[in-house]
Amino acid sequence: MILRSNRMEKVHSDIRGPLYEEALRMQAAGEKVLKLNTGNPASFGFTLPDSVRRALAEHVDEAVPYCDMRGMPEARRVICEYHKRRGLKNITVDDIFIGNGVSEVASMAMTALVSTGDEILMPSPCYSLWSNNAYICSGVPVFYHCDPRNNWNPDPDDIARKVTSRTKAIVLINPNNPTGAVYSRETLLAIADIARKHHLVLLSDEIYDRLVMDDLPYYSMAALAPDVPCITFNGLSKSHIICGFRCGWMVFNSPDDVLEDIKQAVTQLASMRLCGNALTQLVIPAAMADPESTRAMLVPGGRLYEQRKATTETLAQIEGVSFIPNRAAFYLFPAIDGSVYNFKNDHDFAMQFLHEKHVLVIPGAGFDWTDDIRVRIVMLPEAAELKFAMEEMGDFLKKHKR
Questions:
Q1: 309-314: long-range contacts (C-beta < 8 A, 24 or more apart)?
Q2: Tens digit of pLDDT for each residue in 22-35?
Q3: What is the Cα–Cα distance from 221 to 399, expressed in whole angstroms?
Q4: Which DSSP symbol is given to 381?
Q5: Eight-state DSSP code of residue 212
Q6: Which residue from 116, 259, 309, 321 has the least number of CB within 10 angstroms?
Q7: For 278-328, how does the pLDDT look when each residue is reduced to its tens digit (9 = 90+)?
Q8: Separation between Cα atoms, residue 199 and residue 228, nearest integer Å
Q9: Taking Cα atoms as reference points, which of 223, 216, 222, 225 lies closest to residue 193?
């Protein structure tokens, strides 16, 4: 047997890991499974906006040739304008790289930035894209604590304690996946101070910034700390229901060209893959000019609003289940009290729940969280279906009391 690279030893993807494979096996055997494992709105009846559909239909011929390796000029211009409205200063279209989802541009940025043994501070819980990229680059993810008692905000003191001579960057996921948290201005400024003091790069994943709910204020990190080198990541997958289009980008914001060498390295990587999906890029101007289709999902009567309400109101009635309601996106990260229920760990809970109730959720350990038993619930099915699934969780838990 030819063995895999040792860089793959710690790579994990629980969202499509063993539990997901078991769910597929059950479906192949004729069993119905409600898959709450991945944020894929179109799988639950969400449709792309008409603005996106028209842009694709009317401009498809423009996507036949390779485009600029950094992305189509008009798409980058619109992205640049969007981030300037978010408060980013001194950025140009040449600071923007469009890729095949945030997954690709995050990988490009990490490959360009991380040397063997470099430490990257990242949140716990953490979307595994970031920790996996650190492993693949032979870097070391160092996890800082996000506090459920403080609405899942990161703990700046914990971040500061974990900075060493090998620390290269701080990853922020705001709004957060898997918690749905939106970080406070005070927290972000405190993290910026740490980066400033230790000459660290900020990597700010902000793909859910257009899915903030409840009129909550939202702050882009690069806007709050224009003097700190920052790469901002964003995209249209969730806000405009086009996950399969793989539409993401990153924006370099750097005082005195501090990130210029990293940007040149990213340019080399972009050249290697020739260009991002040009069909995807056709729709960016139309999508960014259509915030209303996104906003309609977030207000009372909108699907994301009503689905959160159905989920949280039902979960709140279950003994031994606690959670902080999400303030953005469509994820919930509830805790299951191990003193009330008899489970070995979060994976044991999720596997038994899958087998007994045919509902797939992802263990907290899949997001590098080990403090207690938690699972991520994706709130994308219709409200009635989510309410029933949470009632099933309540019935399931009753049978597993200590």
A1: 309/383, 310/383, 310/384, 310/386, 310/387, 310/390, 311/377, 311/379, 311/386, 311/387, 311/390, 313/387, 314/386, 314/387, 314/390, 314/391, 314/394
A2: 999 999 999 999 99
A3: 45
A4: S
A5: B
A6: 116
A7: 888 988 998 999 899 999 999 999 999 999 999 999 999 999 999 999 999
A8: 8
A9: 225
